[in-house]
Design brief:
284 residues, mainly beta, five-stranded antiparallel sheet, 1 helix
Length: 284
């Protein structure tokens, strides 16, 4: 045990830990890890560093920093810098998995609810929240919902999010997992096909790129008492336009795009309870 003469919780300091070569070689042999990947691990409070293992690390408030490794008199040292007070230190490797381990991520259309997305996790570490991202083509995604994470957990956790403004046909979803320090990672993409209400109704959206007026051309006249709802989102998911266009017997509708800045936009048509989505590029 090392006790500093001055325990400055706001100070920055270097830690150097020394080991015999045979100790490090035995650790590499038993764990199949490499010393060059080792981290210096710091556990907060009065906990013993010897109590922390890769399997229970989520039970402790720990900090881990990649270390520099070298030799001195044929023995091994590990060094790293810290700035969060002095406490117990050791050398090891915290699993480099994503902060969240997914068990499953699935989607299902449920009549009367929409596209229901469910995912299960285990071993959450520093998990702040999930962003549910949606795409009509599997390439261009935008955020449609945010779901809080539990932070730290070693047990199975079930989450759910419902997408009501989905498109009939193909829908694509992914999760953006964000931890407390802003780092993030993506899940696999889930594809969900919902029966196409637009069978026999063809929709053309032009011009693309668009400058002033965006035109929606329908293969047959629409007779909708409530009109056609139109929503326009930018690539960050912000709602830029939300309006209703009169559609009694209309085969062509127009939307003013002149006031939008240059860039890519997602356009969503809401026809009764159904949705059609596409993307356009606005040019100056």
């Amino acid at each position: 045990k090392v006790t500093p003469t001055v325990d400055n919780v706001n100070g920055t300091y270097d830690i150097i830990l020394y080991y015999k070569e045979n100790e490090v070689a035995t650790w590499e042999s038993n764990t199949l890890n490499n010393r060059n990947d080792a981290q210096i691990i710091k556990v907060a409070g009065n906990n013993q560093i010897s109590d922390v293992t890769p399997s229970n690390s989520t039970n402790y408030a720990i900090e881990y920093v990649p270390s520099s490794t070298g030799l001195i008199n044929n023995d091994v040292f590990f060094s790293a810098s810290f700035s969060t007070g002095f406490s117990g230190f050791g050398v090891g490797i915290i699993p480099s998995n994503l902060p969240v381990e997914f068990i499953s991520f699935e989607g299902e259309y449920v009549e009367g609810r929409g596209n229901v997305l469910t995912w299960k996790t285990i071993n959450e570490v520093n998990n702040d929240y999930f962003e549910v991202e949606y795409s009509y083509d599997g390439e261009n995604f935008r955020s449609i919902a945010q779901v809080d994470g539990v932070g730290f957990s070693t047990e199975e956790t079930v989450y759910e999010s419902i997408h009501e403004d989905f498109a009939f046909g193909n829908n694509y979803y992914r999760l953006k997992q964000v931890d407390f320090n802003g780092e993030f990672s993506y899940s696999e993409i889930v594809a969900l096909h919902v029966g196409d209400i637009f069978s026999g109704l063809y929709i053309q959206v032009f011009p693309n790129p668009v400058k002033d007026q965006l035109t929606f051309q329908f293969s047959s006249g629409l007779n909708l008492k409530n009109g056609v709802g139109v929503k326009v989102f930018d690539t960050s998911g912000r709602l830029m336009k939300n309006t209703v266009l009169e559609a009694r017997g209309a085969t062509k509708l127009e939307l003013d795009f002149a006031d939008l800045a240059e860039g890519i936009y997602f356009v969503q048509l809401l026809i009764d309870q159904y949705s059609y989505e596409t993307s356009v590029f606005k040019k100056e």
